[in-house]
Amino acid sequence: MANENSANPAAIRHLIEGELAIFLSAQKKYLESIGSELTPAADALSSFLLDGGKRLRPLFAYFGFIGAGGTHSQEVIRACASLELLQACALIHDDLMDGSDTRRGKPAIHKHFEKLHNQESAVGSSVGFGQSAAILLGDLALVYSDLALHQSGIKSDVLPQVLAVHDEMRIELMAGQFLDVYEQTRSSHTVERALTIARYKSGKYTIERPLHFGASLATTDKNLLVDVTSHYSSYGLPLGEAFQLRDDLLGVFGDPELTGKPAGDDLREGKRTVLVAMAQESMSSADIKEFESHFGKADLDSAGIEKLRSIITDSGAPMHVENLITELTNTAIQALDTPSIVEASRQVLSELAIIATKRNL
Amino acid sequence: MANENSANPAAIRHLIEGELAIFLSAQKKYLESIGSELTPAADALSSFLLDGGKRLRPLFAYFGFIGAGGTHSQEVIRACASLELLQACALIHDDLMDGSDTRRGKPAIHKHFEKLHNQESAVGSSVGFGQSAAILLGDLALVYSDLALHQSGIKSDVLPQVLAVHDEMRIELMAGQFLDVYEQTRSSHTVERALTIARYKSGKYTIERPLHFGASLATTDKNLLVDVTSHYSSYGLPLGEAFQLRDDLLGVFGDPELTGKPAGDDLREGKRTVLVAMAQESMSSADIKEFESHFGKADLDSAGIEKLRSIITDSGAPMHVENLITELTNTAIQALDTPSIVEASRQVLSELAIIATKRNL
Fold first, then answer.
1. Contact A182 B37 (CB under 8 A)
2. Cys bridge to A52: A94, A104, A212, B62, which one at CB 3.0-4.6 A?
3. ipTM, 2 dp
């Protein structure tokens, strides 16, 4: 059973979701023992975590573990599942900061609590209540990710090195988020800066660091660890970039049915992505002027979105980005060709590379 | 040296601040290695943490450690200092949620970044940038508190039990904060609910849990741990309540010079404290009407503040609260009278009880 599972990402995803459900149900009970007013908070977090998500970070962590010679266990599934709670914090706070009101086709957390406030005709500002609830639920999800990891039952000899990778990953994430927020306040932009932001905010955090996290769960042999993590970086860094570039394309051209976000959401929010920076480098000055007059306008309508899309397409950037994604994904997959990574995991990581960067993500 | 220090809260506070400064300086370097745009984030966090603060939580943790039989070490100072980073997260997010623009006589973090944005005539909304920066700096401080604890060098045999206390403390804090935010949206209030919120948001988190955290650093002997933590609860729970009641009084009547917050800040923010709930229970219906017409109004002027203060004073609640503080503090100090807590620590905890609840805090 363990061996069958350990080479099957769909089965592992299922196990991860099972552990998340058990964890959240226990936490809901605990919150309700403090006060029944916490039920909506527990429910919102459960629904946010269980009603969707590709579980990419836990999957990379798990197959990073298997690839470094680890043997399947429930404890490791739990530890890997904890990364999904960290991701919940990142998304809840990100949606609030971006003013992004939809997530997976449903109201974002701040919008959900704003609506609850309105429905109850409660005292004070609905918007303010929604914002506060989203700040606190993000904080709670961050603490839960720690708790889930600490309670997972992983061996105490690997715990310190696992915590070290986990901390580094989270600091990189917050630093990348800060750079992103700061970049939106600048009047000029470069592809290079956009790449740095994407690398920290998303690429490393989604692929390279989860693989390292998994490896650190597998062995305390320093030489083995240094060797396998360096191969994981050779795979994870280009793949992380490709993943982010696909996200950039989906944010502009993606089908709302598949992205769970409104069409052209990144254009309305004025996200300074690598795609946008590349497009701007190749635009005529007339196009730049036209572009900047619509980009980031909260009331952007579908005609405005089409206009921006066609300017971006005309710049040639989307085709260039598609080629880059293919190239980076190939580089990543080639980096798997090493005996340092256990065979069964190499096959799955090769599949996950396609899943993380495919068009209809 | 160690023995002298270990019974002197001022010396311990000094050591805690030294470790915080070293930690933050190393983290600043790391952030700047990612991007120089992160310098203002690192500086703001350093200034927030180093330019003030009573270090109550680290002090209770440290003397909880000594009281449970621990021997002074730099590693333990570092572990206790990490609680100050958690407190930074709580304050930064709290100020943002409350719209409280001043902290220790200086702009709150969201206001600080709003001002930076204005000074640079940067693109987009200054208020939005300030909010996003505060969300991310709070998140970063939360992750830093983990990192500081993990890197402290405490022994690996106590690590799992320390993490367990730490997680429980943080979940209680976030739950208390959520209850508080929710309470502000209700149209009726009770003393009982206000007490529950104060207990989770502030009382347990400031005193009882830091003591437990310290005890869990000191010994892996389960019997000893159960015994000493139960005495710490007998001391910490009433003292936590007294601490919060003092905070309620200061929020209404405190001197801005001493609180670092504008006069009557809690009245302007409409904070539903235990003091306010008690006052309302004893107000005439005319006073309740008058009170509610001013309470929580953002444009409340000094005449309005005086009006609210005199209604509260007339209710008799402040005198009742003063008596309660004295009673609870005495109960706490009496609970120290046990050989289960090491003598040197009992003396200091008795002093800290006065410091945490005195009028000119």
1. yes
2. A104
3. 0.94
